[in-house]
Every structure is written in C-alpha cells, then in structure tokens.
User: Fold this.
Amino acid sequence: MQRIRIAWVILFLTILLCAASHFAVLRITQSVQEQLSQTRALAEARDYEGAQRSLRSLQAYYASRQHLLELFLRRETVAAVSVNLHGLPAYVNDETIRDLYTEIDKAIEQLRAMEHLFASVF
Assistant:
C-alpha cells in the first residue's frame, strides 16, 4: 500500500511540474511578444527614445527570466532569442526603421517557435 501512495505522490508532482513549467514558459514568451509589439508601435509613432527605453526594459526582463526558460528548453534556442533581442537597439533610428520591424517580426517568430517546441515536448 505504501508503494501505491508514493506512486500517486510522484504522479501528482510530475503533473504539477508540467503545469508550472507550461505556465511559466507561456507567460514569459507572451510577455516578451507584447513588449516587442509595444516597441514596434512606439517606433511607428517615431518615438525612438520610448522605443529604446522599451527595449532596455525588455532586455532586462528577458535576462532575468532566461535561466527559467533554459530549464525547459534547449539553451541554444533561448540564447538565439537573447542575441536577437540585444541587437534590436541598433535599428532604432530613421534610417534603419524597416530593419527594426523585420527584426522584431523575426524575434516574435522565434518566440512562437519556442512555445511550439515546448508544447510539443509536454
């Protein structure tokens, strides 16, 4: 009887871990996507200083959550998004604004791919 209880506890903890990881990964990726969309809107309104602030905030948020993503996803995938996010501030000006839009779209697609990879594993 003791073995059955232990098996139930292990099953419960496994389900709890899956649910918590699913919630964490989706919350982080969706938050980053929203911040990228907000940055794009600021850039479209030609508020380049606001876009720079938004990107700095986004980079700080992602850096603080990156270790959590690396627990559940491949480190290379998480690092690739980080590299792209750190390159975005270079495009925030009149001359390269179209490149900024392209790079934001690319980062959003990478985040969606991360969500898909995570969901397909769990």
